[in-house]
Amino acid sequence: MIRFENVVKKYNELDKMAVDNLNLHIKKGEICMLLGPSGCGKTTTMKMINKLIKSTSGNIYIDDKNIDKVDPIKLRLSIGYVIQGTGLFPHMTIGENIAMVPKELGWDKARIDARIDELLELMELDPKVYKDKRPKDLSGGQRQRVGVARALAADPPVMLMDEPFGALDPITRGKLQDEFLRVQEKLGKTIVFVTHDIDEAIKMGDKIAIMKEGKLVQYASPAEILSQPADDFVAELIGGNGAIKMMNLIKCKDVLRKLPNIDIESESILALNLMKEQGVRNIIVKDKNHKILGYVRYKDAFKNQNASLADILNEIGETVSPGTTLKEALSLMFSMGRKAIFISKEKGSIDGIITMDDLLKAVNDDEQDEDTLS
């Protein structure tokens, strides 16, 4: 989809190469993370894709078309671009910001309005509430969601993302990363994503391109980079605590336990038997309309076999998404003082649960797999 062939960038003859003979192939539908220290050439590499920076020599292809043969304006209109701080125009409404590229492409008003609503809903922002607001009325996380929506407005096949979540606090950043991965699962865009954060690269990337002084040092999957760093520079960039880093690689959806459901009117003994049969310690309780009311623990059902489920019902509390990493789930458990956390893909649903024991087992199993391979 995106291919660099012997690409060089020098800002002037006296300078060293900002990008030095880069050869890189990013496949369709993949997220490629460009990672490295400041000045390594990662941002220059990304900006050469939409010709915000012109390469000195070599060729860059998008879908087998040499970008040197494409008009720069047409090229940029066909590529989504998200930057840190969103770059939203403060004098425009949210809807007007999202509509910018479709208007430039000559879309009619009805199509633009429908697209604005569709994208805001995709970003879990109610169009009726947010479409007519201005950027100053939104939180940092909400503005970043709008920035992503604007980049997706004309449905571009390629998106460039320049440290889009870097200015956000860790909790908001983690949630937006999860949301973006959810959106990417639906849309399958080809994405080039610049970051200086190894944890973000491991979590977000299908492939990671590690750069140093303009050169590509290693290009591989997160698992391969963690287990087989190309050299001492990559090993140092990854850092220690291999088990913790591996928790960034494993998602909650990979290890969650499915839970049975039971009606609130059922007897505690039935809940107890269902948990025994399925080998779980919790059961989700719903009303007759299948709305989730909470959950019941095995030990409570065992101690109170004659009680109603309503009497021993517990609140679900905060949940994480299936795309949340085990490291983030562990951090949230610690902050809440809990030994387990529920997984929810959509509001009003529960996909399963992860316990502290599940986290430890997943990491231990993964480390044993790496030992077997090495």
Tell me the number of structural domains.
2
- Mean pLDDT comes to 90
CATH class of the largest domain: Alpha Beta
Low-confidence stretches: 370-374
CATH architecture of the largest domain: 3-Layer(aba) Sandwich
CATH superfamily of the largest domain: P-loop containing nucleotide triphosphate hydrolases
- The amount of beta strand, in percent, is 15-25%
Major sheet summary line: 6 strands, mixed
Number of helical elements: 17
Classify the fold: give the CATH topology of the largest domain: Rossmann fold
The level of helicity is 40-55%
Structural class: alpha/beta
Question: Quick one: overall form?
Answer: globular
Radius of gyration: 24 Å
Number of E-state strands: 16
**What is the distance, rounded to the nearest whole angstrom, between the alpha carbons of the first and last residues?**
32 Å
Largest sheet, order of strands side by side?
Answer: 6-7-8-3-9-10
Catalytic activity: a quaternary ammonium(out) + ATP + H2O = a quaternary ammonium(in) + ADP + phosphate + H(+)
EC number: 7.6.2.9
Subcellular location: Cell inner membrane
Main location: membrane
Features:
CBS-domain, globular, Rossmann fold, 2 domains, alpha/beta, ATP-binding, single chain, 6-stranded mixed β-sheet, 374 residues, membrane
